[in-house]
């Protein structure tokens, strides 16, 4: 299903580099795969759009009947623009201001609230309304320290031990708690950790505490393969176990509830690639350095999370293997996509592809050093569509000047 290398090269000729390109079929495949792995009739998949908020990717998932996990007013407006109705959006309100609370509430989107103080404020402002409550699953797991969101050292969710306080606030103001949410972390390698978080959350849910409950949302965290030597996590077995766990829970609860997940990475990471051109090859004593026309501002995961992204030389695939540092064009020495990486000989002008760049890559990008973000292209078989255009340097400057006046 992956885009042939010849097609990738021709895309760089058509759209120039740096260029993000995404494979539409793979996004759809991953989305539907989760439904087949987790065979529960009331399963709902909420796409965590922070992973990649490109309008056309949102539209693609909207057509597949996905729903949206939004985390800011901007996310909500963007999801609405992509055609998602308000009922298909859940707003996870993390450290929001009062102004943001009122703005999103006026749009009619369900809130997922993760602190007692925000719950109080929301309850006072909107008594009698429906809410979802984010609890902290009390499990520490995830692919990197920065993306472990469970456990009491993190800023996310209400501690399980505060469940009675939540119930008291809701009862005092007539709030209807229709959803319970947790998110353990991102890129979780062990499904047993995800299940532990789920069990912890289910452990506090009783019909007496939550008589209006419609759904339990178990967040995201599904891992994808970044390194060619990694094994794919067995989500088929996980799915069956989870359905058993939840079905048992629902029969004790007395009602069949909806089960939500909120994958970001799993739906879009593998679909994306960043294509870059080698501008400089230099030998620094023992180190061979290949510099490219992109940098951490356009793909920050290696620098931010020490994340591995596989890199291939599309222009010289059969060249002699040599060891390189692949570095970016930003004026900081940490701006490095890969260290001591073996690749077929790299020459200036070669096109490299940085793989698995569909999630938390463009969306975490910036124009640091005043370089515009790359164009984005969506590939559907032989058809490619420009889905976001790169600004020229002058257009970028004019935009910034316009915003500054
Ligand atoms: C609340 C919440 N849900 C879902 C996700 C998506 O996580 P992932 O992309 O690992 O699936 C995140 C990621 O940070 C999150 O914070």
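^ Assign residues to that structure.
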């Amino acid at each position: 299903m992956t885009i042939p290398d010849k097609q990738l090269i021709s895309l760089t000729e058509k759209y120039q580099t740096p260029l993000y390109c995404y494979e539409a079929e793979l996004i759809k495949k991953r989305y539907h795969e989760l439904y087949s792995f987790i065979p529960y009739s009331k399963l709902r998949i909420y796409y965590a759009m922070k992973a990649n908020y490109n309008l056309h990717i949102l539209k693609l998932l909207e057509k597949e009947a996905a729903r949206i996990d939004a985390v800011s007013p901007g996310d909500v407006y963007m999801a609405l623009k992509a055609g998602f109705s308000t009922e298909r959006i859940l707003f996870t309100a993390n450290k929001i201001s009062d102004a943001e609370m009122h703005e999103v509430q006026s749009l009619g989107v369900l809130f997922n609230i993760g602190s007692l103080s925000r719950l109080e404020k929301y309850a006072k402002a909107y008594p009698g309304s429906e809410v979802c409550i984010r609890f902290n699953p009390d499990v520490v797991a995830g692919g990197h320290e920065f993306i472990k969101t469970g456990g009491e050292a993190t800023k996310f969710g209400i501690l399980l031990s505060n469940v009675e306080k939540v119930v008291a606030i809701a009862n005092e103001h007539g709030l209807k708690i229709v959803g319970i949410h947790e998110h353990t972390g991102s890129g979780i390698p062990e499904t047993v950790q995800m299940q532990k978080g789920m069990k912890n959350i289910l452990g506090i849910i009783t019909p007496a505490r939550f008589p209006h409950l419609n759904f339990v949302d178990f967040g995201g965290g599904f891992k994808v393969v970044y390194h060619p030597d990694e094994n794919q996590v067995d989500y088929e077995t996980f799915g069956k176990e989870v359905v058993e766990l939840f079905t048992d829970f629902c029969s004790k609860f007395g009602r069949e509830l909806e089960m939500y997940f909120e994958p970001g990475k799993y739906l879009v990471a593998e679909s994306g690639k960043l294509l870059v051109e080698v501008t400089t090859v230099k030998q620094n004593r023992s180190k061979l350095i290949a510099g490219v026309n992109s940098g951490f501002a356009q793909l920050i995961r290696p620098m931010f999370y020490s994340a591995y992204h596989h890199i291939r030389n599309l222009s010289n695939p059969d060249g002699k293997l040599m060891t390189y540092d692949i570095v970016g064009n930003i004026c900081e020495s940490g701006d490095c996509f890969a260290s001591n990486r073996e690749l077929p000989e790299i020459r200036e002008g070669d096109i490299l592809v940085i793989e698995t760049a569909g999630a938390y890559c463009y969306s975490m990008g910036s124009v640091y050093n005043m370089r515009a973000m790359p164009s984005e292209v969506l590939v559907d078989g032989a058809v490619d569509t420009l889905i976001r255009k790169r600004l020229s340097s002058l257009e970028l400057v004019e935009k910034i000047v316009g915003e500054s006046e």
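Residues 45 and 166 are 26 Å apart (CA to CA).
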